[in-house]
Predict the 3D structure of the following.
Amino acid sequence: MDIALWMLAGASVLLGLAGLVLPLLPGTPLLLGGLWLAAWLGDYTQVSVSVLLVLALMAALAWPVDYLAALIGVRRAGASGQAVAGAGAGAVLGLFGGLPGLLLGPIAGAMTGEWVAKRDRAQAARAGLAAGLGFLIAAVVKLGIGLSMVLVFGVAYLV
């Protein structure tokens, strides 16, 4: 039974890391759950509860990165409030389109928001580009946090 639980913990960590950059997988909760299960399987002797609380804090920081990166990116591009709302709506609707939808949804939403705000095509394109870059930056930041979580866990487990 322990082997199956260790395999579940490992699969959860791997799926969690993948979910940090892929749509439709709850990356942060899967990653934290897998690490927590591994600590539990070790009776919290190698990895203490205090280390798990640090990992939970890191996971909580990773969660809003998508939204903040898109918001900051679109705002820095001088986009309107409608573009920001459009990028958010596009991100949600893009979930139903898989990876292409997740990449193109915020871009199309930001551009549509700019058009609704009666801005020109160049500003709409800047807003769309900023939303796309925000998504890529968020993926890199979340992956960095996730790999840091695995590193913290690994160091705590081995020390």
Notes: The chain has a mean pLDDT of 86. The radius of gyration is 19 Å. The longest helix spans residues 121-158.
